[in-house]
């Protein structure tokens, strides 16, 4: 019991540390960046997996010299607690991107992932292609009010084998012909060549699709459909909550 208490205490300390880092980095980014956002996503409702993430913090900033920054941090509750019970898991993804030329649709990327547990952090180099910023496709994406990028994490340097490769898809779709307050956004991470147990898919995916509706200036009501094939039971989950977003 004392070991469990110490673990929960460490998670709380990590939570407040990451939260403070998020706020501080946002303040600093606001001074040094050419634009960005910070949003807090709180999910009091989870349909099937109670220990899925219940709080997500996203930060994005355009930096000088064609650099940009994006991070997400997820916090999860205990499996035997309510959705907003004590937080005992976290996952954070830190991304630094460098645009290869002023008008280029390609970025060189560094992604570093940290999470609860031992020997499970992931660090990757890759190339990101922003299709909506590609000249031959830009008019099509502009017409359908969509942004879409593919990030090939081709080099992995951590405890896993170096030939593990991940393909990341990210999109956002707006509906101005209905209302400017509605959006659909999400991602799919598709990982290849991992050494996994026999009951896992050969190339598991993790994905989320979020539907958001702006209520007032900075406040949104959101719902998410989640897929995580690293979970062998309850692969799918539905979450609902609110988002508070700050843009600069």
- Which term fits the overall shape? globular
Radius of gyration: 19 Å
Identify the CATH class: Mainly Beta
Strand order of the largest sheet: 1-2-3-4-5-6-7-8-9-10-11-12
Mean pLDDT: 86
Task: Give helix % range.
Answer: 10-25%
Annotation field: number of helices: 2
| Number of separate structural domains | 1
CATH T-level fold name: Porin
Beta-strand fraction estimate: over 45%
Q: CATH homologous superfamily?
A: monomeric porin ompg
**Any low-confidence stretches, pLDDT <50, length ≥5?**
1-11
Give me the strand/helix succession.
HEEEEEEHEEEEEE
The end-to-end span amounts to: 45 Å
> Which class do the helix and strand fractions yield?
alpha+beta
Largest sheet: 12 strands, antiparallel, barrel
Quickly give the CATH architecture.
Answer: Beta Barrel
By DSSP, the count of extended strands is 12
What does this structure look like?
The structure is a single chain. The protein is of the alpha+beta class and 248 residues long. The chain has one domain (2-247): monomeric porin ompg (Porin), CATH 2.40.160.40. The protein is built from two helices and twelve strands; from the N terminus they run αββββββαββββββ. The protein has helices spanning 2-32, 135-143, and strands at 36-46, 53-62, 67-77, 87-99, 106-115, 122-130, 146-156, 165-174, 182-192, 205-214, 219-228, 236-247. The chain has a twelve-stranded antiparallel barrel with strand order 1-2-3-4-5-6-7-8-9-10-11-12. β5 (106-115) and β6 form a beta hairpin.
């Amino acid at each position: 019991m004392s070991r469990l208490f110490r673990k929960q205490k460490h998670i709380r300390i990590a939570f407040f540390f990451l939260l403070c880092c998020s706020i501080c980095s946002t303040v600093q980014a606001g001074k040094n960046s050419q634009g960005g956002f910070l949003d807090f996503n709180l999910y009091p409702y989870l349909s099937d997996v109670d220990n899925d993430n219940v709080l997500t913090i996203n930060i994005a900033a355009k930096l000088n010299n064609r650099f940009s920054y994006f991070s997400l941090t997820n916090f999860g509750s205990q499996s035997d607690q309510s959705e907003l019970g004590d937080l005992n898991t976290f996952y954070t993804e830190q991304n630094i991107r460098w645009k290869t030329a002023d008008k280029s649709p390609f970025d060189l990327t560094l992604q570093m992932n940290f999470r609860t547990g031992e020997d499970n952090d992931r660090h990757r180099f890759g190339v990101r292609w922003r299709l909506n910023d590609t000249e031959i496709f830009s008019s099509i994406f502009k017409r359908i009010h969509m942004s879409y990028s593919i990030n090939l994490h081709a080099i992995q340097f951590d405890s896993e084998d170096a030939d593990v490769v991940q393909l990341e898809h990210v999109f956002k779709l707006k509906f101005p012909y209905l209302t400017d307050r509605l959006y659909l956004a999400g991602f799919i991470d598709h990982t290849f060549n991992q050494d996994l147990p026999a009951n896992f898919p050969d190339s598991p995916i993790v994905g989320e699709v979020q539907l958001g509706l702006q209520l007032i200036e900075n406040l949104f009501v959101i719902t998410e459909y989640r897929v995580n094939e690293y979970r062998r039971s309850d692969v799918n989950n539905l979450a609902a909550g609110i988002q508070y977003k700050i843009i600069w």
